[in-house]
Amino acid sequence: MDKISQKDIDWLLNLNKTDALQGSEPSAAKKKWLQVLFWALLIGGLGILPFFILIRTSIFLNLSFGWNGWLALSGGIFATVMLLLLYVLFLFRRTSNKKLLLKFSLAGLGTLVFAFCFYGVMYLSSVNAKSDEVRQVYRSMHPILRVAIATTTLADGDLVITDIQRAPADYAAMGIPLNERSLHFTQSSGYVHAIDLRTIGHNEVRNFLLRSSFKIMGFKTIRHIGTADHLHVALPPSY
User: Fold this and answer.
1) Which of 71, 127, 144, 163 might form a disulfide with 67, Cβ 3.0–4.6 angstroms?
2) Same-domain check for residues 223 and 131
């Protein structure tokens, strides 16, 4: 048998080293993409969480403790400000003057969240309303539902409200039986507790995500499929 030269040994060592490096490259690339995905999901989740806390806390206080819409919404604003304050304190945790940071953060965050809610309860863009009639009765809607709509339009600018307030005569005009317990009527709270959202012309993935989002926030949803395909979203009255 021929003797193995030092040159052959070096060639084998280099071959093994090359194979090892080539085998590690996909793992390193995969790990990098997983890290990017993790941070993207984390940042996205942290961005969505304040809006979820705002609506979910408001609904919880309204339904579980019987707080009226405005008081419950105030509780949601408070919870959201506290969450955002934790964000700020974490990001600027190395700041020496914590007292000053806390003071300005509370003032700024409180103003920001209040301004958003004020915008949500007072204004509906014509882009998000089927007709001028829908815009005219927008403020007849429960305030928590209004803020939820404003929140949803941030993610879905094509959201369209097709119906809000109804009268018994509207059911006859639509050719459907009268529903005396309809939440489209003004409730004891003084507000309408239901709206219809357009689903026609949108893909089913979007419609599924829209419905799921409202359900997670605490609303009741019903998908009506037919010639008047729409998503019915309602806030159960707090008795």
Assistant:
1) 71
2) yes
Strand partners, 137: none
DSSP 186: B
Q: Is 59 exposed, middle or buried (0-12, 13-18, 19+ CB in 10 A)?
A: buried
What is the secondary structure of 123-157 as a DSSP string? Answer: ---GGGBSSHHHHHTGGGB-HHHHHHHHHHHHH-T
How many Cα neighbours within 13 Å face the side chain of 96?
0
Distance of alpha carbon 106 from the chain centroid: 23
Q: Is 176 left (phi over 0), alpha (psi -120 to 50) or beta?
A: beta
pLDDT in tens, 71-119: 999 999 999 999 999 999 999 988 888 889 999 999 999 999 999 999 9
Q: What is the dihedral angle through the alpha carbons of 128, 112, 235, 69, rounded to the nearest 10 degrees?
A: -130
What count of other Cβ atoms lies within 10 Å of the Cβ of residue 109? 20
Q: Which of 80, 189, 196, 185 is nearest to 142 (CA)?
A: 189
Where is the domain boundary, 75, 92, 120? 120
Distance CA 94, CA 187 (A): 51
SS3 assignment, position 194 = strand
Residue 181 in tokens? 């317990």
CATH of the domain at 141: 3.30.980
Enter the tokens of residue 148.
């939820």
Residue pair 189/142 in contact (Cβ under 8 Å)? The answer is yes
186 and 85 in a common domain = no
- Does this model's pTM top 0.85? no
